[in-house]
Design brief:
Blueprint: H1 6-10, H2 14-18, H3 34-44, H4 49-55, H5 57-68, H6 70-89
């Protein structure tokens, strides 16, 4: 914490403006990927673009996965493909609540 916080005195916050997850969120809670973005920015701070791309690649990949969920989508696709394959082979049947039938309860 700096002794004299110029940004706060002037009423501006450049850090929050530059970062996606640091902007003001509803109900004052931090963004979902705020921690990953902060780690990525802190890792690359002061390194320069070329060196930061090489050394901060894991942090960047974690941040992008949190933002876009691409690995999660690929994993879910494989799980659903395996389920469909097992259904065709007759090794698995869907539970009653997943069959799409009308509920018989009142």
């Amino acid at each position: 914490m700096p002794f004299w916080d110029l940004q706060r005195q002037l009423g501006i916050d450049v850090d929050r403006w530059l970062l996606r997850q640091s902007t003001t969120q509803p109900y004052g809670a931090a963004g979902a990927c705020h921690a990953f973005e902060r780690e990525w920015v802190e890792c690359g701070h002061g390194l320069g673009q070329t060196r930061a791309r090489r050394e901060c690649q894991p942090e960047y990949e974690d941040f992008m996965e949190c933002m876009h969920r691409t690995k999660l989508a690929q994993r879910m696709k494989k799980i659903l493909e395996q389920r469909d394959k097992m259904i065709k082979e007759g090794k698995y049947t869907l539970p009653e609540y997943h069959r799409g039938e009308k509920d018989t309860r009142p």
